[in-house]
Amino acid sequence: MAEQIRATHELHTRRLSRNVGLGVVLVLFVGMVYGLTIAKVGTDPNDELGAPWAQAQERAAE
Amino acid sequence: MTDTTILDQNRDAGFGDYFALLKPRVMSLVVFTAMVGMLVAPGQINPFVGLCAILFIAVGGGASGALNMWWDADIDAKMKRTIKRPIPSGRIEPGEALGLGVALTGFSVILLFLATNWVAGALLAFTIFFYVVIYTMWLKRWTPQNIVIGGAAGAFPPMIGWAAVTGDITLESILMFALTFAWTPPHFWSLALFVKSDYKDAGVPMLTVTHGRKVTRNHILAYTFVLAAVALGLGLTSIGGPAYMAVAVIMNAWFIKGAIDIWRRTDEDSEADSHLVERKFFKFSLFYLFIHFGMLLVETSLAPLGLGGW
Predict the structure, then answer these.
(1) Is B49 in contact with A18 (Cβ distance < 8 A)?
(2) Residues of B in contact with A34 (CB under 8 A)
(3) Structure pTM?
(4) Closest Cα partner for B26 from B57, B61, B54?
């Protein structure tokens, strides 16, 4: 009877680590761009999102 | 030969191999000093933007590490310390490292510019250019002063952190740069005095080999004096203060004493006690930079209590 091929060779583990790692990096990148957008837009005092932040800064300065 | 052995010989790189290309250990110094530069700078930055800016600076540092490993793959294969790196060990192709380095350079510089300002973006771009082109490609294999030049590249992060907040280059940020810049030669050359390296076999000129160990001891002393002047000068600026100054005076007095001890010694003295003084000096140099930047943070933290600064 022919020997069964092992499903997971060490090489597969390495490839999996690469793929999972890249996936995590991409998800973090998307989250970071989203967060940066909120942060950048949110600090504009003339913007609907930024007005509360700007007011809080003014209060803190006083 | 079985299929399994073929697969083992053509190793596929894991995620960790690509991460190793970014020189994560060097990155920790970059992250710490960039963070200090950012936190002590006058002005405000959104915490999330600040966090991202530090990440981009770290990624930029990593990109230059990958480009350095791409260019230096030939000499890395000749030295024990570096032979296990991803390229000489065959896990990653040189072209992959080049691609990763270029891509991460573009990524980090553009995003830092978009997140903060053009001064920070331009400084990061210049740092990568300086490390890869001026240091790695040009001067590393040409002059024994390579350590001094390489140290400059590692000294830029606090300046970039400062620029990310202020959009400016000022005396304070230049002195933070100068602190790491002047610290690198005594730190590295004291190590070179007690560690046997194979740089010579790889064709990289090191001061201990090209000019001898006595000249190296002279250089350590000279740079230590420069370092002390910079460290104390930094304490007199707007980001310094009594607490920083007190610690800096003690640490620099100790460091100068160590450098004088090294300068007075002959190689026979050094070998007789297994390079004890050189080892102590090197160990102390590790704390030296961390404590100085840490004290700048302390001064900033004390400011809201009316205690920090002059």
Answers:
(1) no
(2) none
(3) 0.88
(4) B61
